Amino acid sequence: MNLKTYFENTRGTGIISTADSNGRVNSAVYARPHVFDDCTIAHIMRDRVTRANLMSNPHASYLYIEEGSGYKGKRLYLTMIREEKNADIISDICKRCFVKELEIKDPRYLMVFRVEKERPLIGSD
Length: 125
Description:
Blueprint: H1 3-9, E1 12-19, E2 25-30, E3 34-35, E4 41-46, H2 49-56, E5 59-66, E6 73-84, H3 87-93, E7 108-120
Antiparallel strand pairs: 1-2, 1-5, 3-4, 4-7, 5-6, 6-7
């Protein structure tokens, strides 16, 4: 199953982990990623610690734990390849975001990643 189909059909909890240029680590809960046809993925972010870390160190990991019993999910190893600041593009992409109805006053950024490696939640590939 490709990532687009997987994330469209699988519910769960996602966590992005990043580190700054000094190696200080941060983890944050994030929704399922937006998966594009070119197999890149993206997350919409505000200007917080995760984005700041990506500005100095483009590497991240995304851990996704599927709903239900047991330990199923994915680990994605990522490299940020670009940032998009265009509010219209972000609004178009954010069709499933629950926050789109809310008044968000601070800017949002679309962080686009190349998936370097995909592994199961438990074990190796």
